[in-house]
Amino acid sequence: MMSSSFNIFRVGISVVIMCIFYKSAVDSLSELSPQKYFSTLQPGKASLAYFCQADSPRTSIFLEELNEAITPLQDYGISVAKVNCVKEETSRYCGKEEDLMKAYLFRGNILLREFPTDVLFDVNAIVAHVLFALLFNEVKYITTLEDLQNIENALKGKANIAFSYVRAIGTPEHRAVMEAAFVYGTTYQFVLTTETALLESIGNEDIENAHLYFFHCKQVLDLTLQCRRTLMEQPLTTLNIHQFIKTMEAPLLTEVTEDPQQVSTVHLQLGLPLVFIVSQQATYEADRRTAEWVAWRLLGKAGVLLLLRDSLEVDIPQHSNVIFRRAEEGVPVEFLVLDDIDSLISHVESNVHIEEIQEDEDEDTKSPNMGQAVSMAFLQSYIDLAIKLKGTSTMLLTRVNCADWSDLCTKQNVTEFPVVKMYKEGKNPVSYVGMLGTEDLLKFIQLSRISCPVNITSVQEAEEYLSGELYKDLISYSSVSVLGLFSPNMTTAKEDFTEAGNYLKGYAITGIYSEEDVLILSDKYAATLPALLLSRHKEGKIESIPLANSHAQDIIQIITNALLETFPEITVENLPIYLRLQKPLLILFSDGSINPQYKKAILMLVKEKHLDSLTPCWLNLKNTPVGRGILQSYFDTMPPLPLLVVVNLHSGGQVFAFPSDQAITEQNLLLWLKKLEAGLENHITILPAQEWKPPLPAYDFLSMMDAAASQHPTRKDPECTKEMDVQENDKKQHEDKSAIIKEPIETLRIKHWNRSNWFKEGEKSFRHDNKEL
């Protein structure tokens, strides 16, 4: 039963995402009556049908996505239809209101599965769910390591396994796996999981990304042995999986006696290089064992061949023991002298930049419809957020499609999309302006749970606040706590600090103390009132900053700068934050964790104020693979790591490299930096001058829609495809002069996987565009 008051205020806080989706024609979607539809079903043929009232006032975003799914589903022999019900219709699929929220999958006239429409949230989810249902026997879903071990033991000596982990059912990666299973499901046993614990139990801790393993079980005859496992290192797309499986099908090792430049294998056709292990009759057995070991290490990355020098007419340099041939045509082979297997593997991996194979995009999906793509991409992060907050009783996540509810979005002063706002009873709504990723949203929500600033009432409470004990559950979201110290009569200074705290709500932990005994704290921490105390929990230290004559904007800047790390790891997500400092970047590129001695040397230079004109940072190529492409753009070929460079992005674009023959020590760094300052070092390259603008303008969709209002009236009533939670609230005004929501909003329903429910909402963190350094 619907309440007459806003339900969100019974649970405390509501976060609302407002999105825009373009409407396009759905003429290609067959619209049939129930009787006509069931008469078209053919034995053995699969069909997906959505039942809806015939007098539905306008189409929904679901119908748009269903229309997009017609072509890919038809490729697999699956028809798609919209079935229009009339009020007098007695079919079970038209009879109940809740049934009108579902799509149905039939094989012939047999119902296989029914799907709530909010589970089929985009074309990827539709294709993934439908194929998953049809491939029930070909794809086994498992939840435990025991399940995986049982399947592995059962298939030893019989068949190989393609084991996949995806973060949720219905994601693009899940669709790619299902499409691969449709093609290869009769050859390999496909196994799927969404359980992070299962992925971690086989030694992979990267639960943020989807993964595919190939288990080589067919050749295992000893049941006590474990099947070899090869991890696919490329992103999970349909074409990438196809390429990976093709390399798994290729011979592990091939013996050749012809010119390496004339050899052709499936690896070259797939864009992978060839590695020739040079052998001779005297060392043949040992060379073959070495070549097999190399082949296993490079499986999926390169083809490995054993080349017999004795029977080859082409001359090979006497000391060369490896020949490397790139996949590009016309590139001469490289003759190498390598001392061990690790050197060989390192050489291949550092010279082969595996790029994701992008599937062709229809030109119609670019430019104007990119606004729809941005909202849909962010919706994945929003769904991921909802899953992380499952069980949080004080939080309700909702979403509003502004294409359907333009009047509501206008009242909320929403014209650019996507927009996230937080509503709390008795408070003004807060707009979220941070990065559109799941973790950033989660941080914003968690830090918004407390007042900003928090009113501290005693010295003991202040000490608990500074130690992190008072809000220890929030320390993982902000490692710095800020406490403003004021005498009771410092009214203006307190007002400025409170204004700054309100501005930083959701981004920082701030508190204020202005009791009569404030001098106890100021004396202890050597702070001259008014002052800020910055408690850095990771370092375990507290520093004071005077606030005399500081206004709200000054305090905001002080706190914002204090939240930045001294020597941060640069990622795609946090790069813009450090670029705003408008300083050249001193970047240490590393293939993994950095040497503690390097970090110590750089931090010492920071402490001694030698790096005040630079932003020191480091980039881990394993966590941020785009760094490899950045280095290649600087040096043409991949340089040895670790490597230290200075990048002057904001003035001139010069890139300088620290000499590779020098150790990264405090003294060497200081001498090099002084040479840079004196203009005695030559740059290695100059970056082209270009603006980094958003790929799209901020569209004012509502004004566009108003122009067509005479032909398409603003919708006032829910359509049959939406499940609404009618919520109301007293009329209030907020900071942007727009009214609190009192219109119906669509509740984001999250269905979690269990053995009786086939559906788990799709999830994927929003991937921001890679920026060039």
TrEMBL record:
Q: Tell me where in this chain the TXNDC16 third thioredoxin-like domain is found.
A: 252-342
Region: Disordered; residue ranges are 710-739
Ranges where the TXNDC16 N-terminal domain occurs = 28-131
Locations of Basic and acidic residues compositional bias? 714-739
Domain spans labelled Thioredoxin = 385-446
Report TM segments: none
Domain TXNDC16 second thioredoxin-like as annotated: residue spans: 132-251
Q: Which Pfam families match?
A: Thioredoxin, Thioredoxin_6, TXNDC16_2nd, TXNDC16_3rd, TXNDC16_N
Query: What is the top-level taxon of the source organism?
Result: Eukaryota
Name of the protein described by the UniProt record: Thioredoxin domain-containing protein 16 isoform X11
Lineage, broadest ranks: Eukaryota, Metazoa, Chordata, Craniata, Vertebrata
